[in-house]
Specification:
This protein is an alpha/beta fold. The chain is built from nine helices and seven strands, in the order ααααββαβαβαβαββα. About 18% of the residues have low confidence. This is Thioredoxin.
Length: 218
C-alpha cells in the first residue's frame, strides 16, 4: 500500500471515531442531568404534549390514586395560592391551596429522569400507606414529559396521587433549590414547615421528618 493510501485510511479511521463520539445516544437523550435542564447554560424545554390516546392508556396502566379534593377553604396567605396544576392520574385541574387546605401535606418534587427519585418514591408510597389520612402525600412531576412520568410510576409500582408541574411553579413558590428530589412539608394553614432537598433512604426517615416538622406521628 502506498503512503498516500495509508494516510487516506488513517484519516477515515479518525473521522469514524469522531462520528461515534458525537453521535447522540438514546440514554443521554432520555436521561439528561438536572444541571443540563436547569443549571447554568441549561434550559427547560417547552411543554411536550403526548397523544391523548397513549396518555389515557398510560393513566389506566398506572392506576394512580385520585388527587386530593378540597375539604376546607384555603388560607388567604397559603404559599400555594393561585397554583392550579394538572392531575397526572386523570388530567383534571387541581387547585393546590384548596386541595391541601386544613391538612398536613408532604409534596415530593421529582422527575422521571432522576435516579435518586426512583429510589425514594417507593418509600414515599410506603409512608403514605402507613400514614393514611393523617398526612397527604402528593408527588409533583417537574418535567414536561408527563407520559414518561406515568411509565416510570408503573415501573416503580407507585400509585401516589401526583400533579404535573412542567414550569416548576411549586418549586418557585416555596423557594426550593434546584436539585431533585425535594420534599416540602406543608402545614394545614398552607405555610411551609420545612424544605428537605435530599433523598430519603427509608420509610422511617420520612416518618421522622414528618413528625419533627409537622408534629404528626405515622
Amino acid at each position: 500500500m502506498s503512503s498516500a493510501a495509508r494516510w487516506s485510511v488513517a484519516a477515515l479511521v479518525v473521522v469514524a471515531a469522531l462520528v461515534v463520539a458525537i453521535w447522540p445516544r438514546g440514554n443521554d437523550a432520555q436521561a439528561p442531568s438536572y444541571e443540563d435542564r436547569f443549571g447554568p447554560g441549561g434550559s427547560t424545554p417547552m411543554s411536550v404534549g403526548a397523544d391523548p390516546g397513549a396518555l389515557s392508556a398510560l393513566r389506566a396502566d398506572a392506576a394512580l390514586e385520585p388527587c386530593p379534593a378540597p375539604s376546607s377553604a384555603p388560607a388567604a396567605d397559603s404559599v400555594l395560592a393561585g397554583i392550579t396544576l394538572e392531575c397526572v392520574g386523570d388530567g383534571s385541574g387541581v387547585d393546590l391551596a384548596s386541595a391541601l387546605a386544613g391538612r398536613p401535606a408532604l409534596l415530593n418534587l421529582w422527575a422521571y429522569w432522576c435516579g435518586p427519585c426512583a429510589e425514594e418514591l417507593p418509600y414515599m408510597q410506603q409512608f403514605s400507606d402507613r400514614a393514611g389520612d393523617a398526612v397527604t402525600v402528593l408527588t409533583v412531576h417537574t418535567d414536561p414529559q408527563q407520559a414518561s412520568a406515568l411509565a416510570r410510576l408503573v415501573d416503580y409500582s407507585v400509585t401516589l396521587p401526583g400533579v404535573q408541574d412542567a414550569d416548576g411553579r411549586v418549586a418557585a413558590a416555596v423557594g426550593a433549590p434546584a436539585v431533585l428530589p425535594v420534599s416540602v412539608l406543608i402545614r394545614p394553614d398552607g405555610s411551609v414547615a420545612k424544605i428537605l432537598p435530599q433523598p430519603f433512604r427509608s420509610v422511617e426517615e420520612i416518618a421522622a421528618a414528618v413528625e419533627q416538622n409537622l408534629g404528626v406521628a405515622a
